[in-house]
Amino acid sequence: MNRFLYSVLLYAVLPFVPLKLWWRGIKQPAYRQHWRERFGFYDKNFYAKKSVKSVIWLHCVSVGETRAAEPLIKALQTQYPHHQILLTHTTPTGRETSEQLFGNSVQRVYLPYDLPFAVQRFLKHFQPKIGLLMETELWFNLIAACKKNEVPLLLLNARLSEKSAAGYAKLGKLVTQGLQSLNAIAAQTTEDAARLQTLGAPSVLVAGNIKFDVKPPENAAELGLKLRALLGEQMIFLAASTREGEEALILDAVKDLNILTIIVPRHPQRFDEVEQLIKNAGINYVRRSQLTAPINQNIKVVLGDSMGELFTYYAACDFTFVGGSLLNFGGQNLIEPAMMGKPILIGEHTYNFSDASKNALKTGAAIQVNSVESLRNKIQYLCNDAEKRAQMQQSSLNFSQASTGATLRIMQLIDTHLTQ
Hints:
This protein is α/β, with parallel strands linked by helices. The protein is built from 19 helices and 14 strands.
């Protein structure tokens, strides 16, 4: 495929895009807000066409990428105080997360769809001095427009699973030209770098995973103690960032166990859906948003329906399962619970965090499960073995502390291209 055919296909689906936004807006009304930005139209009264400050633009698709970028954004603000940080997002939850983390210290908009006219409008409006794409975001018209407009574009914290690499390989020349048009690539692991080079990337820096440099909020431990006081003295098991289909399996695994389970779905639009699952299972529960006094001992499940509290949940629990890994979703971020020194359970499907998962298992920070029965057995095992929990807690801290430094390496790469 070449870029012309790629653009033709995008224009072919363009008439259906407003319908998609309207449909998604049924569950998430935020999809119906700022929709003009998705086509490259920005409010001139709010987003100045020519900022007084030079713009450093960073693209973070959704929640995970935005949280991962926190140490990088803070480093950019410190090192380049006379520049304006512009964050672009694809999802409303990503945009909301950046508001929680950075407030008015950054600008934020939606990155337009990868249509030639839309990306050109975006670049003309904000005139960034450099563009930074988090993880593997390959938008080929955007890459070509940046090259044409002489905007250095870097792919940072890049990861590429075998499955994704095989998919990109089918696009042939389109991917090769796109990778070769980037000014620099920083990959998480040597495996990611090798796959990118196989697809045509000329050179790739292995910088590590920037997510290891994310620091828990200073008050996370204090907030965790306050939450723990509401939850009582029983053993607390946290199922964090769960995905579709996993909650039912987790409820089955903890059935009749003498523990309190906190379930925090990955996506907030699924809170009501998961609540219905808990009701259907006949389990006594309470929503976190309604938890204002110590719970009754007959409560067995807490539905984590709050935003921005994941570190608080980690601080409050005794051990955790990291979702997206029991079913084939590739796994969610196991680095955050490691930073909090928590014993970690993960499923078999961890290709989104392949290297980190292997190291966590190798160092004893994590235990892998492959079924509902296996999960149930490991929950019981950790409940009954305080010494094992203590060993895994220390292993988690050691594992996370040994993996830092990616932000510094990436900042050096950015500085090279920004000063040029």
